[in-house]
Amino acid sequence: MEFLSRYFTQVRTHLGGLNTSQRIALSLCLVLIALSVVWLGQWSARPQRVPLLSQTLSADDEANIVDRLRAGREDFVVDNGRILVHAPDRARLLAMLQQARVLPADTSLSFKHLMENSSPFLSRDDAHWRKERALEGELARVLSYFDGLSDAKVFIQVPQRRRIGADVGRASASVTVKSRSPDGLNKALVAGIAEFVSGAVEGLRPDAVKIVDAATGRSYRLPGDDSGLPIDVLDMRRRWESHYARQVEEHLGIPGVRVGVFAELNLDRRQIRDRKLGKPQVSEEESSNTSTSRGSAAAGPGVRPNVGRAVTGGASDESSTTETSRVVLEGGRDEKETHVIETPGDIRRLTASINVPRGYFVGIFKQQDAAAAEPKDADLEPIIKTEIARIRAQVKPLIAAADDNQVEVDWYHDAVLASVATQREAAAGAVAAGAPGYVELLREYGPRMGLGLLALISLVAVMRTARRAQASISEVGRAVERARRREQQAEEEVLERLRTEGGVVGEAQTMQPVLEGREVGADELRRQHIIAQISQMVKDDSNTAVSLVEQWVTQQH
User: Fold this and answer.
1) Which listed CATH number (3.30.450, 1.10.600, 3.30.70, 3.30.390) goes with 49-100?
2) CA 440 to CA 419: how far, in whole Å?
3) What tens digit of pLDDT does each residue of 348-381 get?
4) pLDDT digit string (tens) for 408-452?
5) What is the CATH number of domain 111-161+168-227?
6) Whole-number Å distance between alpha carbons of 267 and 346
7) Global confidence as pTM
8) Mind spelling out the 3-state secondary structure of 77-135?
């Protein structure tokens, strides 16, 4: 504090010797310095703006991106068709826009421009390798800002050369993410990740991006154009199984019933064509019927004897019928064709497994005979058979079961909870009866008591440390006070010697020449030099200073 006080005193002394023009110039310089410092602080605190995408955007894409940024109240500027954002916010905004599905489908040009390396000393392969690694790092950094992700790593492979006779290689990518949700990744997030990575890499299709969740160990992949598989077959199966299990539980309404449903899904894409031909149509029909009859020949005239008919007698009557029909059919026939397409993900077969608690059957038994004792398994056997058949008959229509094997019904013992409750009641009764329960009390309240004891010990240690610090501070203060008193006594002794002692008058030093450029008078400079010399003389030789003062006093009187 003494140094600062002396410094400000010197400043006031120098300022007091300035004229009006010098004071105005100095004030303007101070104002300019202050404004420069304020501007520099604002400029350094304002982040640098960079293009959000280093590619030309269509009018629709630019409008969608701007609307989304305004809806999120983000800080951005549109300059000559480019959207400028703060450099630290670029990755976060890209992640937000990709999840909102407003980025262009192809952003490879933007990321390619971002990763360009203009060094002429790198080979083509080295430059390509560095660009891919830099692109992987940038994609991983943007993906880490996606909602629901805590970390991401991207590995891309883009074939560059093609040998003669070899097939064209396809670009592929592997993405490893770590989700925050225990349920894993949802379909929208999987689609967003695949489309974002494929859009940033030229020639990469979304179905060639394999996504692995490191938190759950599950893998995901978007279906291709020629594939009908869903994104997540397991998710679809769980959804069907949960739906039918909940439906069976609500329909049965049995407390404690356990229902498990397995859905066998159709994972193949099949097309079935059934062609049936109808009966032919008659175009022309013709029929003819011809009948012919002929009688026996007549005998000669005259009287015949009364004898049997001779063999040579007349012939008998004859008749014949001829029927002819002709049918002409048309060349065309009725044709019926059925085209059935089985889409992957459809349910092929459902099976259900139902476990009914034993208490359910015991309740039915006691309803039939309220005064009966606790039934045994043999007593419940008829009720169990009847109820199992009834439950199976109710569940079969719910899951469209064709036979009884698709519905398995059984029962389980639900007396475990009762036994645990009985043990707890017995333990409570033993404690109430006077049995030693110190171990249980120690187990329950021991950790809390230990924490309280540790807190008390810590508080005592802090208080002792504070007391020691306070004592040290007091000791330092007393030492400073003693030093100040010794200095004051030394000054008083010097003044006393100046008043009483005498001696030889010292030789004054020559005055330094006047400095140019300062508007200070010669008398002022001479006075300052004399004061400085006297001060130095008092410090170096107090006896000479006393003699000099006595001589000055004597001459004045």
Assistant:
1) 3.30.70
2) 20
3) 889 999 999 988 998 888 888 877 788 888 888 8
4) 999 998 754 444 444 455 555 544 544 445 666 676 677 778 888
5) 3.30.300.30
6) 8
7) 0.36
8) EEECCEEEEEHHHHHHHHHHHHHCCCCCCCCHHHHHHHCCCCCCCCCHHHHHHHHHHHH
